């Protein structure tokens, strides 16, 4: 059995506030990687942390219990809505995504208060296309105060890299600094949150627990957050046509639009935003926004050894963004955040790759479609090109 107990909130080290539970693994052949699981924020924000429900500690231990096929016991109260959704629907979706998981019994003492207290309409900020698109639509273009973003959050819960890697904190810190600068320009508060969830993730778990950790951070702020937008990377059409391709490795693209609404509680609503767009449409919407031109950061090259946190302008994520900007005629708008000389050296080979793989990969397909919509010249499928240092004919027509 996996058991969590003793929910408490306290100030640690003077300037930090911590929300913490004890966690124990019993009667299974695995030791708990740590004795406690926690969230930590600046002590000045301590009232934002919820302390009358175990909801923030439900998802990650549940995932571990489903992995180890053992019961999950919570010595305290949780949201009734979240509890029912997880036992009736959520576990089924997770098992469809990862067949090695098994549904398990969730045992709770009772249920938490349901009165909403929060007034914050929040979102995360990574400065990628998805998060900037959500910010643009739900802050710049939104006027209804019930739905207009009024706070931003930065969750350091695993997606910045492995916690034991020395570069992780550097990456997280540079992303926070970029987010703080952006928030400052928009007049929005930004609250960074740390967790120790990474201690519980093994390499064999892949990225799945990272998504659950991210949603859990929102639930930790239930005292403050009424509504929270998660900028989705996938769109409805892509999900319908190829959602099953993401089985086993990308929980968000497999099921986020219907899984995440089940994660909300009576007090806090989680909304998946961005599925109504193709990625190239998000880029089109952002292309003339001065904030995007200054802060857009799509690159993930530092995961393979670089210590740069800017855009490399040659990785696949950079190239797919840059090609969309080129087709839209907006490349020069982004000369502050990309090295356009590097891009120009790579762009032809990348275009050939996009054309060759347009039928196989949704982002290449979108770029191919966008080029057709704009009558933008791309390599022809029946010609020969140098592609990945080999001569290739772009078959397909
Ligand atoms: Zn890059």
Description:
Helices cover 37% and strands 20% of the residues. It is an alpha/beta fold. It folds into 2 domains: 2-273, no CATH class; 300-393, no CATH class. The strands form 2 sheets. A 10-stranded mixed β-sheet has the order 5-4-1-2-3-8-7-6-9-10, sandwiched between helices. A two-stranded antiparallel sheet has the order 11-12. Strand 1 and strand 2 (16-25) form a beta hairpin. The longest helix has 21 residues, at 166-186. It starts with a strand and ends with a strand. The model has no long low-confidence stretch (mean pLDDT 90). Bound molecules: zinc ion (ZN). Zinc ion binds at residues 299, 301, 311-312, 315, 317-318.
The main β sheet shows up as: 10 strands, mixed
For the secondary structure, the number of strands is 12
Number of domains: 2
Q: Looking at the structure, what is the overall shape?
A: globular
| Spatial order of the strands forming the largest sheet | 5-4-1-2-3-8-7-6-9-10
Helix content: 25-40%
Strand content: 15-25%
What structural class is derived from the secondary structure elements? alpha/beta
**Through-space gap between termini:** 57 Å
Mean pLDDT: 90
Rg, alpha carbons: 22 Å
Order of helices and strands: EEEHEHEEHEHEHEHHEHHHHHEE
Question: Unreliable runs, pLDDT <50, ≥5 residues?
Answer: none
The kinds of small molecule bound in this structure are:
zinc ion
Number of helices: 12
């Amino acid at each position: 059995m996996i058991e969590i107990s003793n929910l408490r909130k306290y100030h640690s080290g003077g300037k930090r506030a911590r929300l913490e539970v004890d966690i124990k693994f019993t009667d299974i052949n695995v030791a708990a990687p740590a004795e406690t699981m926690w969230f930590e924020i600046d002590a000045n924000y301590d009232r934002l942390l919820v302390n009358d429900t175990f909801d923030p500690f439900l998802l990650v231990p549940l995932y571990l219990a489903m992995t180890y096929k053992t019961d999950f016991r919570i010595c305290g109260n949780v949201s009734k809505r979240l509890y029912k959704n997880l036992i009736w629907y959520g576990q089924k979706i997770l098992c469809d995504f990862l067949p090695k998981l098994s549904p398990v019994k969730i045992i709770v003492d009772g249920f938490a208060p349901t009165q909403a207290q929060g007034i914050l309409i929040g979102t995360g900020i990574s400065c990628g296309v998805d998060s900037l698109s959500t910010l643009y639509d739900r802050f710049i273009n939104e006027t209804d105060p019930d739905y207009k973003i009024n706070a931003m959050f930065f969750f350091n819960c695993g997606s910045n890299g492995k916690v034991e890697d020395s570069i992780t904190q550097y990456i997280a810190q540079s992303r926070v600094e970029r987010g703080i600068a952006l928030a400052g320009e928009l007049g929005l508060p930004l609250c960074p949150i740390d967790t120790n969830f990474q201690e519980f993730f093994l390499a064999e778990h892949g990225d799945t627990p990272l998504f659950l950790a991210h949603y859990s951070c929102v639930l930790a702020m239930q005292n403050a957050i009424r509504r929270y937008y998660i900028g989705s990377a996938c769109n409805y059409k892509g999900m319908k046509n190829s959602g099953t391709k993401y089985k086993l490795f990308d929980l968000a693209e497999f099921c986020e639009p219907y899984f995440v609404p089940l994660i909300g509680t009576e007090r806090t609503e989680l909304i998946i935003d961005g599925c109504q767009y193709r990625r190239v449409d998000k880029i089109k919407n952002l292309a003339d926004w001065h904030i995007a031109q200054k802060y857009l950061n799509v690159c993930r090259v530092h995961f393979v050894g670089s210590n740069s946190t800017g855009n490399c302008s040659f990785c696949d994520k950079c190239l797919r963004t840059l090609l969309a900007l080129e087709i839209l005629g907006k490349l020069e708008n982004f000369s502050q955040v990309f090295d356009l000389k590097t891009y120009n050296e790579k762009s032809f080979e990348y275009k050939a790759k996009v054309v060759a793989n347009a039928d196989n990969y949704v982002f290449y397909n979108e770029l191919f479609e966008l080029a057709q919509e704009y009558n933008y010249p791309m390599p022809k499928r029946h010609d020969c090109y140098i592609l990945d240092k080999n001569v290739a004919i772009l078959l397909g027509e």
